[in-house]
Amino acid sequence: MRLFECGTLVPGCDWHTHADSDAEVVRRAVEHMRSTHGETLIRENMIDNIKARIVEETKAA
After folding, report:
1. Closest by alpha carbon to 26, among 56, 46, 10, 7?
2. Which residues does 17 contact at the CB level (< 8 Å), separation at least 6?
3. How far is CA 26 from its chain centroid?
4. Quick one: pLDDT at residue 58?
5. Which of 6, 15, 32, 33 has fewest C-beta within 10 Å?
6. Distance (Å, whole) CA 7 – CA 20
7. Helices and strands in the chain: count of H runs, count of E runs
8. Cα first-last separation, the chain
9. Distance separating alpha carbons of residues 36 and 18, to the nearest angstrom
10. Across the strands, what pairs with 17?
11. 3-state DSSP call for residue 29?
């Protein structure tokens, strides 16, 4: 499972999402950026920054 935590890109934001694919994580993150952070134009570097912060979700033991 892939994980993106918005706070790694937008300090102070505690929103996160996880999905089976990076593409779905990016789609959800872009939707979040638009609806919560008011981003109206999502530039390629924003997508790159999101992708760079996607990690493999670790399972709690």
Report:
1. 46
2. 3, 4, 25, 28, 29, 32
3. 6
4. 84
5. 15
6. 20
7. 2, 3
8. 16
9. 17
10. 4
11. helix
Please, which pLDDT band fits residue 61 given cuts at 50, 70 and 90?
low
Tokens of 47: 């997508």
For residue 43, the model assigns a pLDDT of 95
Amino acid at 56: E
Dig out the tokens for 55 from the structure: 């990690």
Q: Which helix (H) or strand (E) holds 50?
A: helix 44-52
**The model's pTM:** 0.91
Calculate the alpha carbon distances from 20 to 11, 48, 56 in Å. Answer: 25, 19, 10
- 2 has which bridge partners? 19, 56
